Amino acid sequence: MKRETAAIITSDFFSFSLKCSAEVDGGKLPSDAAFLQYMAGELDAFAQGDVKRLIVNMPPRHFKTFLGSVCLTAWILAHDPSANILLLSYAEKLAGKNTRAIRKIIRSEWFKSLFKTRLDMKQAEFLSSTAGGSVQAISIDGGVTGFGADYIITDDPVQM
Length: 160
Description:
The protein is an alpha/beta fold. Helix content is about 45%, strand content about 10%.
């Protein structure tokens, strides 16, 4: 990977998300959609701590889950492998799907060449980094007591 490309992917959340899309779903994320670029900017501000609370309301099939749950979680762990993230979904099936996508990104060769974050567990709904970070993905029915988190991401709360 060229040095310039690597610098963009490691510093720009939307570019990172496009690379994740190529890894997970064959590149279905449209690179020219202004609303996605705007949403990526807001999500990055959340990851940086500049925005403490963020609600994204959009119609179905507009990449909310992919950007806001999958890519954002991988991005946060890429830059802070010790972060603890709680992903709440309306269904256990969605929680597992999101975790598998995050795992696929973090274990990809391009990710490993750009970031120091490494995983050390193989459970479907739980990821743990070698730096002490974690991703706990559960459905709202699974109960959230007992899990501390630096970031809480809720996907499709209206479904809940």
